[in-house]
Amino acid sequence: MSTAPARVKTLKIDDRDVSGREEETILDVARQNRINIPTLCHVPGLSPVGSCRLCLVEIKGSPKLFPACVTLVREGMEVVTKSERLASYRKMILELLFSDGNHICAVCVSNGNCELQSLAQNLGIDSIRFPYRFPKLTVDASHQRFVVDHNRCILCARCVRVCGEVEGAHTWDLMGRGTSMRIISDMNEAWGDSETCTSCGKCVQLCPTGALVEKGKSVAEMSKKKGFLPYIVSMREGRR
Amino acid sequence: MSKVRLATVWLDGCSGCHMSLLDMDERLVEIADKVEIVYSPLVDNKEFPQEVDITLVEGAIGNVEDEEKIKMIRQRTKTLVSLGDCAVTGNVPSMRNTCGAKAVLERVYLENVTLQPQIPSESVPALRSRVCPVREVVKVDVFVPGCPPSADTIHALLVGLLSGSVPDISLLSRFGA
Amino acid sequence: MTPEELTNTITTERETQEKFKHHVCVCVAAGCLSSQSDKVKAALEDEIKRQGREHECQIKGVGCMGLCAAGPLVSVEETGTLYQEVKPEDAAEVVASLEGQPVARIKGPSEAPFFTRQVKIVLENCGKIDPNRIEDYLLSGGYQSLTKVLTEMTPAQIIEEVYKSGLRGRGGAGYPTGLKWSTVAKAPGSPKYVICNADEGDPGAFMDRSVLESDPHRVLEGMAIAAYAVGASQGYVYVRAEYPLAIERLQNAIKQARRLRFLGIDICGTTFNFNIDVRLGAGAFVCGEETALIASVEGRRGNPKPRPPYPAEAGLWGCPTLINNVETFANIAPIAGRGGNWYASIGTEKSKGTKVFALAGRVANTDLIEVPMGMTLREIVFDIGGGIPDGKRLKAVQTGGPSGGCIPEQFLDMPVDYESLNKLGSIMGSGGMIVMDETSCMVDVAKYFMEFCMSESCGKCVPCRVGTAQMYDLLHKITEGKAGLEDLEMLEDLCDLVRNTSLCGLGQSAPNPVLSTLRYFRDEYMEHIVNKTCPAGICKIKVPTEVTA
After folding, report:
1. ipTM associated with this complex
2. What CATH number does the domain located at C354-437 have?
3. Where are chain B's structural domains?
4. What is this structure's pTM?
5. pLDDT tens for each residue of A130-181
6. In what order do the strands lie in the sheet with B142-144?
7. In contact, B144 and B83? CB cutoff 8 Å
8. Which residues of C touch A173 (CB under 8 A)?
9. The pLDDT of residue A123 is above 80
10. Any idea which fold B4-96+130-162 has?
11. pLDDT > 80? residue A221
């Protein structure tokens, strides 16, 4: 049995002629062509969830917006990744994220190495227009090597996905609804008591903010190493 | 040409932003040629004057005095600048918001004091229940994030404002920088 | 059951029922049960035994008769007499009066416009048949459409009939049902699934619950026809666990239908196989969203996911899946029986058939009603609903629940159909209809629905999770008289953001109650913001000691 050859589509992204295989997303093709679309929940190698809504793009002919991370390319599609409307929405979404947690960059171990912080800078956010909600959140330092600080969690669920899909441990999951949603380890137990956690640290390395960090780091000392993921994913695909 | 009337104020913050301002070093001289500092913790004036062109605000709004002050300052200022993370986001002072003012006062003046523990009631302004950034109380014209914003950032800001435009300092500073 | 066996069963049942001279029906749906209609039923049963008339009088538990606020309801089949607010003590009088004049003291308005203006298709059997007995359903023509479809029609033909009927999804969005069916039928892949969405969650809406409690077989029959049409052999009914009575009757109905081979293998003597299982929701409103519902049926957290792929192509366990709601399925058997053209002759040009509404709020009759599409809101509220009590003036009608909007008085003569409601900034929704009079504060109404959306947001996407919370805070600030005009601007910006960037329908429609009240009642917002007063006197605004910026 031979697999059918993938069909190649040609399309326009920001008025540039580009091409992509039919199973590729707008985000894949944009990145191949060095067209920057901001993302927070997306990590190549993990299943896309389309939850941060930062990668929304316009497609000519439709009034709707489309998440680039899950929208497949189509022949003749004309994608707009930068517009006043998109810029304003992206800013507001990031501002909402800042307003919903307790993100005090000045005292954060990830200061200077945080995706939320650098995105805010890149998108030109110099202040948050929405009132801060100051939720009462906890810090769990029960794990021998790592800490989870819920004040800094943006609920992108990267940790949940990498733990379930790559490490296969499924220690992390989500609990609760709306603004009460939290990441939990096992059945909402202390991380240090987890019997499923292998202490591999993949969740920590993929966490975009200072929510999951290594112990013993002080302000601005925590930088993450994300290089392992493409390596693992490509080795697995090669073996398949 | 008359000099630009500049004020700086220090609300709920650590004075780091003012230190950073002083870190402009010799560039202070260049700025000083163009401005008259009409009010600042660094100078002697006791009263915030009328008709100020630019006010740099360091610090969040943490107590009732801050709140009254900033409302008055807003009325007397043309361009109000939130300088640094405390003024822009609430920053470290706002970290008490999740546990409340009472808990903070008890920790500081009762639990950690061995000699005559008591919560001060006179000559100290009452804490607000919620520390907030300046923009939640009055309209702010320019935001300069950073903890503190670097001397270069403040210099770029002042040079821009003195030439009559709001400079883009997004490449120079960010939250926590 | 083969067509011949079906005829025999119906004949036997008819003979059994005709032995009784009188049939007294007592509503045993949740509404009347909550006012203890079960005790009324027991009292009536005791009474006929006491009078020695158990061979000529049948006391029958039936489903919802519609006038829920006036329960417990009892009706006498032969004379059409309706009794309301019946107490167990009334049993003797009711039984004694079966031959003579009805008991005037508790007689209900059986000839009122409430009954005469309604057109019952979905609710046709509700309040007439015993929901616990499949035989009663068979006697009223039940499972004949299924038998006809399986023995006389091809899947393509039944899809064609549904297509012709113009039936649109009754869950809220109004997607053409025939189109959905043909998409699933054509989608490559197997197995295929049929899911009935009974996760009714809009505040004040109880259409689906009533149908399941009153006529569960109707839904099963619709699902079986759908399964035949799209080529599925397994179906699920996803019911919220808060409907224990509906679940019990549904499970009982499934058992009965299996016994008589209307479900299971070799249905109606053909080679068609189809099974239905019940899956219970765990209290999340968002699980009414189809992708979240599918996740929940699969046993995972009920979070929505981006579409496409649509469930029609990749739904339950990645297989093509047809999802319709209870009311949609309840329309199928009549359409299959009487033909698509018959159904299409009811309603308006683009909205065919009837719609069930749960009428609630400041209206004389708070009830369950079924009206043809295109009836005006005025007819619904004033003719059927009996108008506004206490001489108050109608202010607005809220349709579509937390995803809908408020329609002000000046549009009362607009016909109720999908297009007209959309034009007015509301939606048809699943059928909740809340009437508000001058004592309602529209900002407070918007706040109520926003609080609902905020707490029911699954939390997955940022605009819905945080945006609804920020909007709620702003609305709260307005109702406290602490908001300024810049807060109103922020609220409108958030409405725009949340509507256009949220992942699923819950977030995309969450701003609707705010947007529609802003559209028609902006002056009320301004009263709160500028003059710090609530015109309806609902919001407790403290006189501010100082003006906040």
Report:
1. 0.95
2. 3.10.20.600
3. 4-96+130-162
4. 0.94
5. 999 999 999 999 999 999 999 999 999 999 999 999 999 999 999 999 999 9
6. B35-39, B4-10, B52-58, B77-83, B142-144
7. yes
8. 301
9. yes
10. Rossmann fold (3.40.50)
11. yes
Backbone dihedral angles phi then psi of residue A230, each to the nearest 5 degrees: -55, -35
Whole-number Cα distances in Å, C513 to B12, B175, C302, C395, C399: 40, 36, 24, 15, 10
C291 in reach of chain A (CB within 8 A) = no
Contact residues for B125 (Cβ-Cβ < 8 A; gap 6+): B63, B64, B65, B66
Q: Are A127 and B130 inside 8 Å of each other by CB?
A: no
CB contact set of A228 (below 8 Å; sequence gap of 6+): A202, A205
Amino acid at site C423: K
Which residues are C352's β-sheet partners? C347
Work out the percent of chain A whose per-residue pLDDT is above 90.
92
User: Which residues from B are below 8 Å from A when comparing CB atoms?
Assistant: 82, 85, 88-92, 94-95, 97-99, 130, 132-133, 135-136, 140, 143-145, 147, 168-171, 174-177
B140 touches chain C (CB under 8 A): no
Domain A87-229 sits in CATH 2.60.40.10: no
The average pLDDT across C417-438 equals: 92
pLDDT, mean over chain C: 93
CATH architecture of the domain formed by C142-343: 3-Layer(aba) Sandwich (3.40)
Chain B: give the shortest CA distance to residue C477, in Å. Answer: 13
pLDDT of res. A239? 63
- Which chains neighbour A (Cβ–Cβ under 8 Å, 3 or more pairs)? B, C
With bands split at pLDDT 50, 70 and 90, how would you rate the model's confidence at C549? very low
Percentage of residues in chain C having pLDDT higher than 90:
85
- CATH number belonging to the domain at A8-82, selected among 2.40.50.840, 3.30.1380.10, 3.40.50.720, 3.10.20.740: 3.10.20.740
- How far apart are the two ends of chain A, measured CA to CA in Å? 16
Tokens matching residue A94: 């990031």
Pair C338, C41: CB distance under 8 Å = no
